[in-house]
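Weekly structure sync, notes
Attendees: PL, DS, HV (note-taker this week)

Item 1: Cytosolic carboxypeptidase 1
DS walked through the input record. Source organism listed as Oncorhynchus kisutch. Sequence as pasted into the shared doc:
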Amino acid sequence: MNKHKMITEKGNSRVLMLFGQLEKLNRESMLVDPEIARQITAKILHLIQTQEKTRKEIVSKGSSGMEVILATLEVSSRGGRRIGVFVSKGGTGILLQLVISASKESPPSEEVMLQLHSVLAKVGPKDRKFGVKARLNGALNVTVNLLKQNLQNYKLLLPCLLVLQVYSSNTVNAVSLGKNGVVELMFKIIGPYSKKNTKTNAQRAVVHVPILLHIYQDWHRNDTRHRHILIRKGILGCLKNITNIKLGRKAFIDADGMRILYNTSTECLPVRTLDPLINTSSLIMRKCFPKNRLPLPTIKSVFHHQLLRVPAGGPVAQLYNQPLGMDDVVDESDNNEDAEAENDMENEVEEKDHHNDDIETDINNLRPKETHSRPFEELKIYERFFMELSEDFQVMQYTFVFGLIIVFLGMFSYFRYTLVLVCNGNVSFPALDLDTINITKDQDGCGDHTHSQTHPGAGLEQELVQGLERVALDGAGPQGGGGGGNKHNRQPPILAGGVAARLGGEGEEMLAEDWAEEEESSEEGVLHVPDTALLLPLHDPDLYVEMVKSTSSVPQFSEVAYPDYFGHVAPTSREHILERVYGVQRTKIFQDIERLIHPNDILDKVVYDLDIQSCPVVDGGESLKFNSQFESGNLRKAVQIRKFEYDLVLNSDINSNHYHQWFYFEVSGMRVGAPYRFNIINCEKSNSQFNYGMQVLMYSVQEAISGRPRWVRTGTDICYYKNHFSRSSIAAGGQKGKSYYTMTFSMTFNHKDDVCYFAYHYPYTYSTLKMHLQKLEALRTPQTYLREDVLCETLGGNSCPLLTITAMPESTSNDQICQFRNRPLVFLSSRVHPGETNASWVMKGTLEFLMGSSPLAHSLREAYIFKIVPMLNPDGVVNGNHRCSLSGEDLNRQWQNPSPELHPTIYHTKSLLQYLAAIQRAPLVFCDYHGHSRKKNVFMYGCSLKETVWETNISATSCELHEDLGYRTLPKILSQMAPAFSMASCSFVVERSKEATARVVVWREIGVQRSYTMESTLCGCDQGKYKGLQIGTRELEEMGAQFCVALLRLKRLTSPLKLRNHAHLLDVESDLTETRCKVQSLAGPLKDIQRLVPKPLVRCLSCVLRVVVLLGGEPSPQTEVLSALEQVFIKDLSVLCSFHLSLVPD
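Item 1 (cont.): predicted structure, written out as tokens:
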């Protein structure tokens, strides 16, 4: 017995010794070796497990052993890995059991409870089942009771509240705690502090909203040194959660919460450290702002086009079946119970790609179809669009030779005269009359090129010298000859309706007087404008008006917008992405909140309304004048809110009730220097590049008249945010409680009596396309095969053009004709979405390059037959739609089963591709040009079975995933050549929502492996040479040209090995290198090259020069000149003026 007693005492003393060591280690935690601590705790654990009495003494009241262990755990829990090991060993359950055991003591040990809850607050978040364990063990009530008994014990209160927060992360626990009076308990805790310093629960807390507001005001007034920001933020957090429900928002408004938070936030604005309070207050006020209806009688488009056949289902069918007189602007969903989730970040992080749940997971839908859906007999009617595949060119043999003879004789005479002028030094180039205009499409886009004298042809020199990085766009420079110094008097555009294009405001009278002085005999005033044909070879104002007259529109437009009439010359200076001013969004939001707080300051005056057809423009004298009744225009209503602030409402797409994004309207009657603010209040997308540096576009008529006809990026304080105008469930596609978004920008005008136009992106109308096609036809040379067909007629009565471009065969021999017919096809399309105007500018660059006479263009035409549909949705473009055609449907979602009655352009375009597949001539490349509103750079979407499967959990064998990686070749080439192109932004994953798009259908049904959508940003670039710059028409057209050059390189890569060095396929790099060397050796630089002439004529020119050289008897520099001329396509006969060679004797 004595022996056993001695053993026990010895064991207890050993335990006390070990605890002493452990406590000492806790005090020296920064210097202790973890291995020593583990050894000591292992020995204590062994003693506890082997001796029952020792265990009881350790956990008994008054024992210091438990405090030491808990203190040790608290120190150890500072490392995340240690906590994880502790949880994995069941430590959480042991701690909860200790809480229950300690609570049974009367009274519970405050020190033990403090340490237990401190450890639980750190360990709990790492255990996913912590809430369940606590509820099952009964620890919830223990902590709540401990709080109730220690409301004034601030030392114990904090760890208990932290544990309660972890408990509440479990929904069941949160409801249980709410029922047990925890909400009321929280307010008992908050109350004393203020003197010194989930849905059901939110309903219980509604009655406390006035108290919370009073407490927040109290803290705001007394916390003058801002030492208790976390407490103030916590109070706002309570208000934020309570106002998530309808009752909470009503209580907030009734308690004058809008005014309280507005005033306190305004006082916080000068202190940057208080931004978290301002942002949370702003979020609460936006959420509680009473929902308003859009100031419209209906959300349907103000224009209507009756469909002969209405779709059986879908949004268009719902629109036609909607009862007459139904209010579709608001409905019961506007009073929904729950508020939308908001982002309380002032400067949102730009959207990145997240996990995509839309990826196709059925591998059968990813395999190409093996059978054609239509019999060949139906498709044979499309043979007439492929005449080049059966053309024999017998007539060409005679006309071509006769033409060469005529041209040769004319050239000899012309060159003889030109060389005499050069010799005598009498040649001078007239300077352009427009100041500081550089029409050269330099690919840098950099520098401010202000030349009083511009030499024609500088673009080709850049192409020759700079190589692949600078692909010149043919026809970019001004045309030589002509009276360069005089301005042309042009009539303002008058259409069939007899309404002239106007200058608004007082400027109309002023200009009328000027016109009268210039031409007193004219009944109509003439507009003094520069001859834009000198600046824009493919633009002719008079031709444009003729094109407009033949364009059909639903509103029957009778006016022409000045920017479309004058044309656009790309700016010579760079336009940087706008750096967002910190706090601009909340400033705009506070100005909107002032409407509710100070309603007497609001004018609410309608100044423009298309719903009032009799008089859409309301002239109030002190207000701006608006207009959008011209081709591609979109502005439905303008409401003057304050003296210099206007709310603007966009029109829906025809036969639709949404898609509000594209805008294009005219403004006049402005005051110089006044700070105008424009708010487009019915945008629908949840985010926009306007939040990340994108600016709106403005065109000033006064600037155009002064010689600067161009769209420029403009606007300050630009931001995009959710507003207080509610979207009905009808407008939101069945979703309830949605809001519209506001795109706002500020603007000051520089000219009195100006007329300015604002647009979402660079406008490109259907009439502009028709004009450009006519001008391109005039540029055609005998070496170019160009045919324009009418693919079909649209619902609105406009024709859809189809272009065929390739090179004429060199002769009518069987070999040449066979080579011509067997060229691979490239199929391009564009502008299926009317609001993506950048797609048309890229297509313009492609067309100009293809029709040019550079060596690359000629080789490209010899390599491919191009089939191009430059505008798939003419009706949508004409009528100012953003996404739909007149059928009210997105045409790029109709490719699987297009209707010939509702979607004729898609039906017939797909039929062309089906015909090619049926005759085993499927295109090598299919590319649909688009614009992207949420991303930067230019990039491609393609289709890949492998990459789609890799993004999902589909199990597939290697044989099922066999796929040629050739689909990546073209994007990779573009990433190496085009400075705006980003390979990192490309994706080759097939998504379910995109299975009816052109890209996916052409890949699956037509079997085109290289089937792409090429997306061009509406904003700018964040990589490469154009990083930090907004994209302009120069860069977009360059992208179109670079796409062509990439196709040429693709041809070389995909050709059989024996054909890769074929004479007709230029090796771009070596050709440019050789040419550069020869150009540098010329007596004069090739700076004045303008228009390209056919290759045979270059040989004729060579012969003429050889004759002249023989006559002149001077052999020295001529050999180099002739050698270079044989390699270079001369752009104009006047090129010889720049050589300064004295080849002809006096």
